[in-house]
Backbone:
C-alpha cells in the first residue's frame, strides 16, 4: 500500500529571470521545462500502473505505451513525477499531438503505434516502501538516477536533465527553445517535495512581437484584456492570443485609441475558449467587444504556440502607433 495517495503534484511559481545558485537553499538545480502533460506515475504493489494528471484524471488509457514502459522500468511500490511529451517529426515538442491522444480515449492503443509518446521523469516520491518526500531534492535525485540513469535519450521513460551550473542552464534556456522547450524550472537542492505547494520556480523564454487588437473583454473605453489577431496569407484576420489583465494605465491609453467595430468585422460575437488560450471546450465561450482591427500592440509571449496561436495568455507591452496592421507578422510566423 502506498504511503500517501492520491498525490498532489508540487507546483512552480513564475519568475522573470534565472536566479543565481546562491538564491536557493543548498544551491539551485536547473531543469528544462518541457511542454507536455504533467503526470504522476504510480506502480502499485502488484505492478499495476496508474498515470494521473495534475487534477487526478487517469491518463494511462490514453497513453498505454507510457504506462507499459513505466511498468517495465520501475519496481512495484514506486511513485514518480514527470511530464508526458510527444516529439514531432521536426524535432519539436508537439502539444497538439498530446491533445489528440488524450481526446482519442480508447483509440489510444492505435495511436500509441503511430504517435508514440515519452515520459520525462524529474522526481521520485516513493520507492521500496520509503516515503522520499521529506528528503532533500539532492537525495531524491540520487535515487532517481539509480532507478532510471541507465536509460538512453530515446528510451520511452527517461530522467530529465539537471544541472547546478547556472551558465549551462542559460545555454539550455537559449538553445532548447527551438525544440519547443518553454524555459527552466529552478529547484532548491535542499528542498523537500511539498505536495500542492508552489515552491519551485519557473522561468519561461519570452519573445517580444506584435499583433492587432480585434476585440476586448470589459468595455471599449476601459478594456480588461485584449483579443489579438494576425492576418494569414489570404488576408483573413485570425485570433492568436488573449492578454493577461491590463494595468490601469494601459486601460486608459487603449480606451482612447480603440474604436467599435463595423458590421464587416470578421470574428463572431463569441469565441470558443481554445481560440484565445487554453484547450478547446475547457471553458465557456469568450464574450467580448469587437473593435476595429487597426491598432497594433506589442506583446510579450512564451514559447507555447500551437497552430499559430499562443496557448497561454500573453502580456501587453505597449501600443505601436508607428506600425500599420500590414506590418505585423503573418499568422503562423
Residues:
Amino acid at each position: 500500500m502506498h504511503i500517501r495517495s492520491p498525490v498532489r503534484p508540487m507546483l512552480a511559481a513564475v519568475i522573470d529571470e534565472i536566479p543565481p545558485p546562491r538564491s536557493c537553499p543548498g544551491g539551485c538545480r536547473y531543469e528544462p521545462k518541457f511542454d507536455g502533460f504533467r503526470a504522476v506515475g504510480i506502480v502499485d504493489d502488484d505492478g499495476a500502473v496508474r498515470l494521473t494528471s495534475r487534477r487526478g484524471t487517469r491518463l494511462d488509457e490514453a497513453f498505454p505505451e507510457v504506462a507499459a514502459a513505466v511498468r517495465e522500468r520501475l519496481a512495484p511500490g514506486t511513485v514518480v513525477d514527470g511530464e508526458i511529451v510527444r516529439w514531432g517529426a521536426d524535432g519539436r515538442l508537439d502539444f497538439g499531438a498530446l491533445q489528440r491522444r488524450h481526446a482519442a480515449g480508447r483509440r489510444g492503443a492505435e495511436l500509441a503505434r503511430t504517435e508514440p509518446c515519452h515520459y520525462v521523469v524529474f522526481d521520485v516520491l516513493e520507492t521500496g516502501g520509503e516515503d522520499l518526500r521529506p528528503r532533500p531534492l539532492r537525495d531524491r535525485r540520487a535515487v532517481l538516477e539509480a532507478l532510471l540513469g541507465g536509460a538512453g535519450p530515446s528510451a520511452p521513460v527517461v530522467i530529465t536533465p539537471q544541472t547546478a551550473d547556472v551558465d549551462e542552464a542559460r545555454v539550455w534556456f537559449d538553445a532548447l527553445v527551438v525544440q519547443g522547450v518553454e524555459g527552466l524550472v529552478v529547484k532548491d537542492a535542499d528542498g523537500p517535495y511539498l505536495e500542492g505547494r508552489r515552491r519551485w520556480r519557473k522561468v519561461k523564454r519570452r519573445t517580444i512581437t506584435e499583433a492587432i487588437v480585434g476585440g476586448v473583454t470589459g468595455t471599449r473605453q476601459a478594456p480588461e484584456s485584449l483579443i489579438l489577431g494576425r492576418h494569414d496569407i489570404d488576408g483573413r484576420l485570425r485570433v492568436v492570443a488573449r492578454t493577461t489583465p491590463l494595468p490601469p494605465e494601459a486601460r486608459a491609453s487603449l480606451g482612447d485609441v480603440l474604436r467599435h467595430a463595423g458590421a464587416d468585422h470578421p470574428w463572431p460575437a463569441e469565441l470558443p475558449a481554445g481560440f484565445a488560450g487554453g484547450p478547446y471546450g475547457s471553458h465557456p465561450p469568450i464574450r467580448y467587444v469587437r473593435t476595429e482591427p487597426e491598432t497594433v500592440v506589442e506583446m510579450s509571449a512564451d514559447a507555447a504556440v500551437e497552430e499559430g496561436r499562443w496557448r497561454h495568455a500573453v502580456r501587453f507591452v505597449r501600443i505601436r502607433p508607428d506600425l500599420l496592421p500590414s506590418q505585423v507578422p503573418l499568422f503562423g510566423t
